[in-house]
Structure formats: C-alpha cells, structure tokens
Specification:
The complex is a heterodimer of chains A (356) and B (125). Chain A is of the alpha+beta class and 356 residues long. Chain A is built from nine helices and 22 strands. A six-stranded mixed beta sheet of chain A has the order 11-12-13-10-4-14. Chain A has a six-stranded antiparallel beta barrel with strand order 15-18-17-16-19-20. The longest helix of chain A has 13 residues. Chain A is globular and about 55 Å long. The relative contact order of chain B is 0.27. Chain B has a single domain, classed as RNA polymerase II/Efflux pump adaptor protein, barrel-sandwich hybrid domain (OB fold (Dihydrolipoamide Acetyltransferase, E2P)). Chain B has four helices and nine strands; from the N terminus they run βββαβββββααβα. Chain B is 18% helix and 34% strand. The interface between A and B is medium-sized, with 15 and 12 residues.
C-alpha cells in the first residue's frame, strides 16, 4: 500500500488505518461522528495527499484544457481562480472530476482523485498536448483544513500563510512561499486546501493540531461531502454516467461552442436519469448505496447513503427517473422493508445549516 | 478487548447474561462493536415474539453497515431495550450494559452449553 508523508502522525494519533484507492489512510481517529461535528462546528483536517496535483505548463496550457475539460477554462480570467470540472470520454462518460487552478497564463494545476490518477495522466498525454507539458506533482502533500474556524486556526498554526491567503475569496488560491493555498474543499464548509512539499507536511499537520484543528478520517470526509451534496467519483458517477445524469449539468459548457471532448455526445443527450437527494422519513434503518428506490414513475437506485450526523437521520444521493420532483415521497428497499423517503434537491447542509 | 468472565457468548459475537428472574439478557460484544464501528440505528424485536435459536432477532446499523443479531437460544422475547433507539451509541460506549433484548429461554439449561469467556476469546483471537 502507498503511504503519505503523514503516516507516522496518523499512527501516533491512534488512527484506524484502511486501504483506499491503493493508499493506507485513516478511516477515523476514534469517532468519525465527532470528527464530522468538529468540521461543522469548528475545524478539522484531512490528509488528502493521495490526491494528485498535475501541473499543465506552457503557452498551450489553456488551449489544451479547453479541449480536455467539460467546464469552460476560459472562465478563469483572474490568476488564482479555480474551476470544478469533469473530464469526459467522447461518449460523454465521466473519466474523473477535478479542480483546475489558474496559477498564471502558462501554468494551470489540476487536482485529480487518487483512484484514477495514473489513468487520468495517461489520458491527458494521449490527447497530445501542444505547447504544454504535463507534470505530475508526486512531490507535494495535501492537507484540507475545513470548518468555520479553519482559516483562523490555519493562520495561527502557519503564520507565513496569512498574508497571501487572507484576501482569498472562495474558490481562489495563491502561492504562499512553498505552499499553494486554495479556499476550496469537499465538506460544504469554509476552509483551505494546502498543497505543500512532502517534507513540510508532518510539521504543518502537527502545528495545525496544536492550533485546535482536529484530525479527521475518510469516514467523516464521506458524511461531510454527502451532506454537502457533493458527488464521489466511482460511487455517484463513473464512465457509464454523464454529468447531465448526476447533477453536474451546471459544470458543462454547451453554450460557448467550444469543442471539448464529450461535447457532441452531451449536446444530443436527453438524460433519462437525475441525481437527487433523499431524506428518510421516519426511523427504520439507514439508506445505503445500491438500495432500490420505488416511485410511481419507475425505479431508481441509491448511489451514496448513510447517517447524517448533522440532521440525525439517514440521507442519500439517488439516481432517479429524470422527471422526479422534490418533495415527492418514494419507497426505498432497506433490508427486508420498504421505508418512505422524501426527495430533496441537494445540498442537505452547507455552512453548518440544514437546508432541506 | 473486554470479555467479562461472568457472561456467556456465541461465535456470532452476542453475549448473554443470566438475570435473577430467570430471563437472559442479550447484547453484542466489545469485539463486535469495535469491528462494526459507531452505531447509528437499532431495530429491536417485539415483546412476545417467539424465537428459535439462530433466528434474526435484532438489527444494529453502524456508520459502515447493517448487521443481524441472532437469538442465541430459543425462547420468548420478554423485554426490549427501547433506550437504545435514542442512544444507539451506548452499544459502543458500554457494550455489556447496553442489552438489546431479554429472553425467557424455552430450555434454561441451554445457556450452559454456549461459549464461556475463554472459548469466545479463542474464537476471534
């Protein structure tokens, strides 16, 4: 199994370590529910060093990404701005989702999921970037600091980051010495993601811990992103789904006429399925991935589900017939029963507040 | 791993305690709660239900997965621990106090045939 530069810190903190996408990572450090609450109420940190940063460098970087990404890289006009996008196959199937950071005119930085990192890199190379070089940055570790207190506590722990990162609006990033700081995340809370040299990661992690940032594992990361209504690649979307079928139509640019890979397939697709949220109506169990959903207009399937620590009930993302509307009541097969659930439009929770 | 000496056990990780009134309390072991993770939901049997040994009697759902809890003995359910509905986390915090249900065994001598603490410990170590 691959290990991040923080493996010793995780062991010392008593993490329960599990395999994830080939990496040995913390599932939790004792209580994933308490870790979840720490992020909603104060600040938590995640070792996301398994994710891969890929620098796209050269005069042709922008033109190359305009073709490779479904979202419009042309929208990145101010240096530092970030963009969420899918990377598609010709048939519109999703190869991966990523964040693209506009660093400067000849440098963009992509951050992709761990599971698909090698495949993504090979795919991008196969597209034949002209005047742009792809550089996987395996030398960088990544720490996500998330929660309403995340920015303040980051500045307490890592004072050198303050000047460059205090002016950042959401979804912007900046280089602060050796650290690339972006005001992004995967929890529905404010905070930063730090890309930093691997050799500095353990010290930064320890300082953040001393400033009151709680270490959090994959368990809390999953319930936080689920509450925030954010898709997980491999679970809510994969190569057999298009962005239009998983709630990501807003990230696909069909208007500008830009010729990106997957455009032709999506331009003619009338999606039969939509990704929506479910909230369990009473008690009786926990909504989980792969449970079947029954509606008057057909059937659907839960793609991600679990217990929401913030809402104290079970919630899910589900692929449902396209004409399903919020507030409809559906039935979910949970073990040997059919339980009623209410259809909602995600997110469920943002910035500590329940929205559904 | 905590395996109290005064209880009986099954290989499927239930514990049993003989109560003074002749009934038997059933819960899940420390080893089971540790493996399953934090509990978020329990489904308890109805009082009055007749169970055969090995019947699915209760369900515990953790942050990870749902698991059946089996009746270790044949008998009638005489009580269910409704307090767990509001605090399923008690199964993690104090697994040997957080009983799920109580049985009136059809054959009181059957309890003696279940695993003792040493045998149970051997079953997973």
């Amino acid at each position: 199994m691959l290990q991040t530069p923080l493996i010793d810190a995780h062991r010392r903190a008593g993490a329960k370590l599990v395999e994830f996408a080939g990496w040995e990572l913390p599932l939790h450090y004792g209580s994933q529910i308490e870790e979840h609450h720490a992020v909603r109420r104060a600040a938590g940190m995640f070792d996301t060093s398994h994710m891969l940063a890929i620098d796209v460098e050269g005069a042709g970087a922008r033109a190359f990404l305009a073709r490779a990404l479904a979202n419009d890289i042309g929208r990145l006009r101010q240096p530092g701005k970030a963009l969420y996008s899918c990377m598609l196959r010709e048939d519109g199937g999703i190869l991966d989702d990523l964040i693209a950071h506009f660093v400067r005119d000849d440098l963009f930085r992509l951050v992709v999921n761990a599971a698909g990192a090698d495949k993504d890199l090979a795919w991008l190379e196969s597209l034949g970037p002209a005047d742009a070089a792809l550089r996987p940055r395996r030398d960088l570790a990544m720490i996500a600091v998330q929660g309403p207190e995340a920015r303040e506590r980051t500045w307490t722990a890592l004072q050198d980051l303050r000047a460059a990162s205090e002016p950042l609006e959401p979804f912007f990033g900046a280089q602060a010495g050796a650290v690339f700081v972006s005001r992004t995340g995967y929890t529905g809370e404010d905070g930063f993601e730090l890309l930093l040299p691997a050799a500095q990661a353990a010290d930064a992690w320890e300082r953040l811990g001393r400033a009151g940032v709680r270490p959090c594992g994959l368990g809390a990361r999953d319930t936080l992103r689920l509450e925030a209504g954010m898709n997980l690649y491999g679970q809510d979307m994969d190569q057999s789904t298009t962005p239009l079928e998983c709630g990501l139509g807003w990230t696909v640019d069909l208007e500008s006429g830009r010729d990106f890979i997957g455009r032709r397939a999506l331009a003619t697709q009338l999606p039969a399925r939509a990704l929506l949220g479910l909230v369990l109506a009473g008690r009786g169990g926990v909504l989980r991935a792969h449970q079947r959903v029954h509606l008057a207009q057909g059937e659907g399937e839960i793609t991600s589900g679990g217990f929401s620590p913030t809402m104290q009930t079970s919630i899910a993302l589900a692929r449902l017939p396209a004409r399903t509307a919020p507030d409809e009541t559906v039935e979910v097969e949970v073990r040997d029963k059919r339980l009623a659930a209410r259809v909602v439009r995600p997110p469920f929770v943002r910035h500590g507040r329940i929205l559904v | 791993m905590n395996v109290p000496a005064d209880l009986k056990y099954t290989a499927s990780h239930e514990w049993l305690r003989a109560e003074a009134d002749g009934t038997v309390s059933v819960g899940i072991t420390d080893h089971a709660q540790e493996a399953l993770g934090e509990m978020v939901f329990v489904e308890l049997p109805e009082v009055g239900r007749a169970l055969l040994a090995g019947d699915g009697a209760a369900v515990v759902e953790s942050v990870k997965a749902a698991s059946d809890v089996y009746a270790p003995l044949a008998g009638e359910v005489v009580a269910a621990n409704g307090a767990l509905n509001d605090d399923p986390g008690a199964l993690n915090k104090d697994p040997y106090q957080a009983w799920l249900f109580r049985l009136k065994p059809s054959d009181p001598s059957a309890l003696a045939k279940l695993l003792d603490a040493a045998a149970y410990r051997k079953s997973f170590e």
